[in-house]
Task: inverse folding
């Protein structure tokens, strides 16, 4: 069983420390898997492929934190659903590339249920719509245990993204569910958790 941990609104570093705690438990043999769902206060995070030009101006008003996940710089803030799966991939007979595809699939299926068409783009990570990139992901995997995860814009203030080159991608603007329709944050959260459980625990789709 996957235990759902809903943190509501939570500071990024506090959540990161919880991730590390659960990740280390898994490395030591904890059988239970975890799914953290959270909404962060504004923060930028820099992954391993962040280049200097991805943050073209000095950011003074929002924390910028370097983390161990893959990918470049991104923004987390209120109005964005962030999901951190702490799983043992061996239990799900899932390799790294298949895991990343399932995270993208989770977002695509969730958006589909909400009436929004979304898709992936070859050679780019994340989920896209006709109005731009709406879903982001960056993971770390060690000894088949997953860490970090994905985020989906619900009604986020997109002006924060204008200070960076999100994920190092210049070809697509940033989109949010609110560009298409008004949906309650908790409804989106419930749909995403349901689709994730269907894909991983119930082995649907």
Result:
């Amino acid at each position: 069983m996957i235990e759902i941990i809903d943190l509501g609104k939570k500071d990024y570093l506090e959540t990161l420390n919880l991730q590390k705690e659960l990740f280390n438990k898994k490395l030591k043999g904890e059988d239970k898997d975890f799914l953290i769902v959270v909404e962060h206060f504004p923060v930028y995070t820099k992954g391993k492929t962040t280049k200097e030009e991805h943050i073209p101006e000095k950011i003074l008003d929002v924390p910028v934190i370097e983390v161990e996940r893959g990918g470049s710089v991104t923004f987390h803030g209120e109005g964005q659903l962030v999901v951190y799966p702490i799983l043992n991939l061996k239990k799900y007979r899932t390799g790294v590339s298949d895991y990343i595809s399932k995270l993208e699939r989770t977002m695509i299926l969730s958006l589909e249920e909400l009436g929004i068409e979304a898709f992936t783009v070859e050679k780019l990570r994340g989920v896209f719509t006709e109005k731009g990139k709406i879903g982001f992901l960056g993971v770390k995997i060690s000894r088949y245990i997953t860490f970090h995860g994905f985020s989906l814009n619900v009604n986020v203030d997109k002006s924060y993204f204008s200070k960076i080159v999100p994920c190092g991608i210049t070809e697509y603007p940033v989109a949010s569910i609110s560009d298409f329709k008004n949906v309650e944050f908790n409804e989106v959260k419930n749909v995403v958790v349901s689709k994730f459980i269907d894909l991983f625990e119930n082995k649907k789709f």
Q: What stands out?
A: The CA atoms of residues 48 and 114 lie 33 Å apart. The domain at 2-200 is CATH 3.30.930.10 (BirA Bifunctional Protein; domain 2). Helices lie at 12-27, 96-113, 185-200. The chain has a mean pLDDT of 93.
